[in-house]
Amino acid sequence: MTWFVGAKFLPHQIRLFICALMLTAGMVGYWGGTQYFLGDLRRRHLRGILIAAAALTGIFYLLWNAYYDLVAPATASISGAVMLWMGVRLVQAQQRYRWLGYTLIARGLFNIVSSITLTPELYLVWFAGTSLLKTLSMLGLIYSVQDEIQQRYARTIDSLSHGFLIRDRRGYVHVANERCASLLGFDSPSDLVGKHVCELLPDLTPAIADAYFQRFEAKGVQYPLTETATFKLHNGVKLPVEMMGSPYIERGRLYCLIQLIDISERKKKDDMLYRAARIDPVTGFFNRHALSVSLAQEVAGAAAAGRECAVLFLDLDKFKRVNDSFGHAIGDELLRQTAHRLYGVLRPDDVLARFGGDEFIVVMPDLAPGTAEQMATECAERVIGAIANRFDLSHHAIALSASVGVACYPLHGSDSDMLIRNADIAMYEAKKAGRGELRFFNDAMNAAAKEALVIDGALRGAIEAGEFTLLYQPIVDARTGKPAKVEALLRWHSAALGWVAPDRFIPVAEDSGMIVAIGTWVLNEACRQVARWRDGPLGGLTISINVSAWQLADPAFVGLVEQALASNGLDGHRLELELTERVLIDDGGQVRAVLRRLRALGVSMSLDDFGTGYSSLSYLTRFQLNTLKIDRAFVMDIEHSERSNSLVNAIIAMGHSLGLRLVAEGVETAGQAAILETMGCHYLQGYYLSRPIAPDELLRFAGARRLSAS
């Protein structure tokens, strides 16, 4: 076209140069495009291409200037050869470029053939033919470019680590990647494309699929729409996924682009965190946090439905001894067995939780009005019975009991915290009553618990404030009436509370653990007082002090006794430790070991309140005791009750046969004293002889007794 149109307007030399430049541009353009499609064109090639283009332009111009008649056929021949070369390269290179390659081969051959036969008269035919082939080559180019984009797009989405699919409004899948096919249990993306999404998942319905798509048409929606779900696949496997959905518009139509992320590992970690936050690692049942949440829900449900529920607070008696004697591994196994025994006697809807340490809580939900206390009683009896059976642990048969406190909604509390607190208070009342007991909460317990909190707070600084004192009650020889021993009795005058009776503050001190520090103070003060009496009329007295189970369990206790004796220059026989039967029950060997070390120091042992509680004759030989103290409950009726008289007589006879010394407590009349002396009781203690008195008064008492005896 340049040649024929430009003939009227352009000089001959300029037309030749333009033809040479166009031929060179065409050749270089086609060559560069071919190299680009084949991936062989690099930025570093551009300088060489420009230099070659300039050189070719000059060469063509010189040739055509010398051989003017060859311009048209030479142009067609050279461009045809270049196109032929490009077509062959593309056909040989990759399958997706073959259409474009064959088109260029046809166009190149057409140009070469035309150049041989071309005359000005046939130029229009040549122009029409080459225009048609140019159009076909452009279509081939467009197809190749689109194919290249699609292949790159396919490779990109297949390289994604997440599943990827595009679905239309009707629910049919248009695009999917390998990961999506793998996640949904298919072999390849082609198995998904063209299918309805409901065919991919057995539980997915058209209504669900349509509702999901409609969310993308709603106004004000923030994208991507992110949510988690669990897919059930055709092979039955459950797959937890996170779905991220975004709108995708193509040719004016709305599509839904969804990414599927496999969150199986995240779900496992979440489950582990859930268990760590809600499940007790030792027993596998609920922990305190999960219990609080569950109980709050049950109380709310009961309030809404007009129903009741009950909370059972359970504590294992003497569990600490198991840990101390056998180690924490055995203790943990005991807790696991306990939890499974409890679970075995509960109703299916009951909730079991380990509250902490050796404490368990049972929640009985959805009880009919007026039945909570009866249902809780029946459950508690099953629980106590289940724990009463011996546990076989590492070749050891271990006997335990459980103390249970109960609080019911709405009778004993209106919320979960109050129910747990009141059931806890009731449980402590059950422990005070003995072992394996059940107690329901009442308001009097709440008052006692509040008082215990006040006493606990005041006790914290009592030793440092010098608020404790010791009084001494004489224990006299039954035949001579002279003091042979004294029992040190603790008294507390609180700056905040005034005088507080021992039966009020000693249980609080035991519950809080402060009894160890208080007992140490009593031990040291009693030994110091005996040392002060060393050179006076009371120089030969033995002092008796009460020892709690907490003190015996303290690893430092024997060392404290030894230090108290040594620092005051006392022999061990000047000290007697009074034990209660509760200290000796269910001994695991530790108590016997401690008593053996104390006897090695010369310290004697006395069993207090013998004949009450859980008396066992085995104590008298197993623990190698020195003294029995007959409880005041038997002594008070000795003058008027033949049964009490016979029982005391039998205890004294048994004590003689075992070589034990006998002390009768609670002697309040001369008649009681006479009967006990006749029976052969060695020592008497009680108000008939003397109340607990201060050290100075005890000196006067001893002096008066010596005068009366002489």
Describe the fold and architecture:
By secondary structure, the chain is an alpha/beta fold. It is built from 26 helices and 21 strands. The strands form four sheets. It has an eight-stranded mixed beta barrel with strand order 13-14-16-17-18-19-20-21, surrounded by five helices. A five-stranded antiparallel β-sheet has the order 2-1-5-4-3. It has a five-stranded mixed β-sheet with strand order 7-8-6-11-12, with helices on both faces. Strand 9 and strand 10 form a beta hairpin. Helix 15 crosses helix 16. The radius of gyration is 51 Å and the shape is elongated. It starts with a helix and ends with a helix. The relative contact order is 0.04.
β content, as a range?
Answer: 15-25%
Q: So how many helices?
A: 26
Uncertain residue segments: 1-8
Number of strands: 21
What is the CA-based Rg, rounded? 51 Å
Helical coverage, percent range: 40-55%
Strand order of the largest sheet: 13-14-16-17-18-19-20-21
Net shape: elongated
Distance between the termini: 159 Å
Name the structural class. alpha/beta
Largest sheet: 8 strands, mixed, barrel
Mean of pLDDT: 82
